[in-house]
TrEMBL record:
GO terms for molecular function: hydro-lyase activity. The keyword Lyase applies. Its EC number is 4.2.1.151. Pathway: Quinol/quinone metabolism; menaquinone biosynthesis. It comes from Halarcobacter anaerophilus. The keyword Lyase applies. Transmembrane segments: none annotated. Gene3D superfamilies: Periplasmic binding protein-like II. Catalyzes the dehydration of chorismate into 3-[(1-carboxyvinyl)oxy]benzoate, a step in the biosynthesis of menaquinone (MK, vitamin K2). It catalyses: chorismate = 3-[(1-carboxyvinyl)-oxy]benzoate + H2O. It is an enzyme of class 4 (lyase). This is Chorismate dehydratase.
């Protein structure tokens, strides 16, 4: 099974879980990771170059998916807009579309680089897109969902025991991500408290709402 991995901090608990889960089973010999950023992974899944991945919500339309995603209930810190001249982030289709749905203008920033910017530039005005979505629709925002083209039964079996609260990130992995992103361990851990992964009724409503709005806008 080829699993595409969004190599951002927001999926760190999932990656730690998968690493432990796979090492303790026979799955290790049949799973292959492919790392990239969201918009590129979307294309890989659409072309069936990978079997499963967390893909941007905008690309999940028509795909089979499990009830896991990247979810922000209010502020997220890693997806925002700097007011001014419009500029999309090439790494994200969903966040670019979200800014347009919310009728916000400026530069979209996502991922680890956005989180780094947030902490290094406290005086710069930013608009958190998850906050604006929640204000407008009283719903969490689901940035990505776990989709698959094949091996769905295997994927469901792998993920069935995933519980965010039970995931302890080893210090060496935390240090590695901190060094790579130039974001402190403390800020990484605080950030991860803002992210959830379980898609329930309200999250499904949020996905449906977002996909309906993007369809209306022709995205």
């Amino acid at each position: 099974m080829i699993f595409a991995k969004i190599d951002f901090i927001n999926l760190l608990p999932v990656h730690v879980f998968l690493k432990k889960r796979i090492q303790s089973s026979q799955i290790k010999s049949i799973i292959n990771y492919k790392k990239s950023y969201p918009s590129k992974i979307n294309k890989k899944l659409k072309k069936s170059k990978v079997d499963s991945a967390f893909v941007s919500s905008i690309a999940s339309r028509g795909e089979k998916r499990l009830d896991y995603g990247i979810i922000a209930r209010k502020n997220v810190r890693s997806v925002f807009l700097i007011p001014g001249k419009d500029k999309e982030d090439y790494q994200s289709q969903t966040s670019n579309a979200l800014a347009k749905i919310l009728n916000l203008h400026g530069e979209v920033l996502i991922g680890d680089k956005a989180l780094k910017f947030f902490h290094e530039n406290p005086d710069v005005e930013t608009i958190d897109l998850a906050v604006e979505w929640e204000k407008k629709f009283n719903l969490p925002f689901v940035f990505a969902t776990l989709c698959y083209r094949k091996n769905g039964k295997m994927l469901k079996n792998i993920m069935k025991d995933f519980k965010k609260r039970q995931i302890k990130i080893p210090q060496y992995i935390l240090n590695e991500y901190s060094k790579r992103s130039n974001i402190s361990n403390k800020n990484i851990l605080e950030y991860l408290k803002l992210i959830d992964y379980d898609i329930r009724t309200k999250e499904k409503r949020a996905i449906k709402k977002f996909l309906s709005l993007t369809k209306q806008k022709g995205f």
